[in-house]
């Protein structure tokens, strides 16, 4: 009996977020998720309702810089519903980082809504490394705004970009 080999479909996941700025907590999730999937698309949200510190292009460039050591990571941006974007990227998994119980409650609501919108798209929760469990982009921006040391929270490239942003402000 002849058998035809089954072609393996690449496992593609999307890690969406504002990443304003990308922190070491984000990078931890990206590095870990990139080991789980053939391709990880880091999708920078273009939310017209928010006033970010960095433009979408600046956030994408910073993300490309800090993930350049990960060959299976692609950086992109989107402004659609996340589940629509995931399908456009031929993915079927959304990766979300969880820091706290509060994060979990919010993310559970989002995952349930996304599942209702498209049952083919799964949401995978990854617990943040405990050393980053307190970290948020908002906190990092506030510390940097007041000339505090953010070197333990972001890469040197992001730290420099923030310093330049706040010098211009």
UniProtKB/TrEMBL annotation:
Pfam families documented for this protein = CTP_transf_like
Enzyme class, first EC level, given as a word: transferase
Q: Which residues bind ATP?
A: 18-19, 26, 97-99, 107, 132-138
Name where it's found. Answer: Cytoplasm
Domain (Cytidyltransferase-like) spans 14-142
Q: Can you tell me which family this protein belongs to?
A: Belongs to the bacterial CoaD family.
Q: Which function does this protein serve?
A: Reversibly transfers an adenylyl group from ATP to 4'-phosphopantetheine, yielding dephospho-CoA (dPCoA) and pyrophosphate.
Q: What is this protein called?
A: Phosphopantetheine adenylyltransferase
């Amino acid at each position: 009996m002849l058998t035809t080999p089954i072609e393996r479909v690449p496992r593609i996941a999307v890690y969406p977020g504002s990443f304003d700025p990308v922190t070491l907590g984000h990078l931890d999730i990206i590095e870990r998720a990139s080991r789980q999937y053939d391709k990880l698309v880091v999708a920078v949200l273009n939310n017209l309702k928010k006033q970010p510190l960095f433009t979408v292009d600046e956030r994408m460039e910073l993300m490309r810089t800090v993930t350049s050591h990960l060959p299976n990571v692609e950086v992109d941006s989107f402004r659609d519903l996340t589940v629509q974007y995931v399908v456009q990227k031929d993915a079927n998994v959304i990766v979300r980082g969880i820091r706290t119980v509060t994060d979990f409650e919010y993310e559970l609501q989002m995952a349930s809504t996304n599942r209702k919108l498209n049952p083919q798209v799964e949401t995978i929760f990854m617990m943040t490394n405990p050393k980053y469990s307190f970290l948020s982009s908002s906190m990092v921006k506030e510390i940097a705004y007041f000339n505090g040391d953010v070197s333990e929270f972001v890469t040197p490239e992001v730290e420099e970009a923030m310093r330049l942003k706040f010098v211009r402000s």
